[in-house]
Amino acid sequence: MGIGAEHYILMAINALCIIAFLLAPRERRRETHIILLFHQFFTWILGIMAVEWGLLAYPVREFPMANHTSFTFEYIAYPVIAVYFNLFYPAGSRASMQTAYYMGSSMAIVLPELWFKYHTQLIVYLHWQWYWTWISVMVTFWITRMFYLWFCRTSVTGKRRIVFKTEESVLRESDK
Q1: Across the strands, what pairs with 124?
Q2: Model-level pTM?
Q3: Which of 54, 113, 134, 155 is the most exposed place for a label (fewest CB within 10 A)?
Q4: Could you give the CA distance from residue 106 to residue 144 in angstroms, rounded to a whole number?
Q5: Where do the domains of the chain lie?
Q6: pLDDT value at position 9?
Q7: Could you name the domain of life of the organism this protein comes from (predicted)?
Q8: 89-148, pLDDT tens digit by residue?
Q9: Torsion on CA atoms 6, 59, 18, 11, rounded to nearest 10
Q10: Could you tell me which of 172, 148, 143 has the C-alpha nearest to residue 162?
Q11: Helices in 53-161 by DSSP H: which ranges?
Q12: In whole angstroms, what is the distance from residue 159 CA to residue 116 CA?
């Protein structure tokens, strides 16, 4: 079995995502890692469920003997996009702008997926529609955003930092 066009697409996506991850702002590296790991955990489980329930199929994938889901999409590309979604979220904007940001970011995932669906063997919709991807991406972005806001609280001085529950009292004393 040779390497087809789909494998080259997967390699290019992996390379672009690794570069994008490495280009994340250095001063926000801890936040980047937390967002990535949480989103990987969350979407990996959901991706496996979608494939096992027969909603989607990935005929061409990286580890065909180990798993039936797409490693590149569920574990690399989608979490890296979630990192940038959270790092550049328009937190101080109006609610309509934030809603548009959710909708636009979700469409930025749906449109390439539709292209892959019609022009490659990377994804096949069995009992799935594009709007389910759009809705599920918005929901997973929201869950990741809520986790991010909870985990990376803002200190009294306004500097964003990672705070663990046991450190809250120490930080309150040091920020005075």
Answers
A1: 57
A2: 0.82
A3: 54
A4: 13
A5: 5-174
A6: 92
A7: Bacteria
A8: 998 889 999 999 999 999 999 999 999 999 999 999 999 999 999 999 999 999 999 999
A9: -30
A10: 148
A11: 71, 78-87, 95-119, 130-151
A12: 41
Q: By C-alpha distance, which of 24, 160, 131 is closest to 82? A: 24
Amino acid at 43: T
- Nearest CA among 158, 144, 46, 27 for reference residue 86: 144
- Residues 70 and 44: their CA atoms lie apart, in Å, by 9
CA of residue 11 relative to chain centroid, distance: 18
3-state helix, strand, coil in the chain (%, to 5): 70, 5, 30
Alpha-carbon distance of 99 to 117, in angstroms, equals: 27
Residue 141: which of 173, 168, 104 has the closest Cα?
104
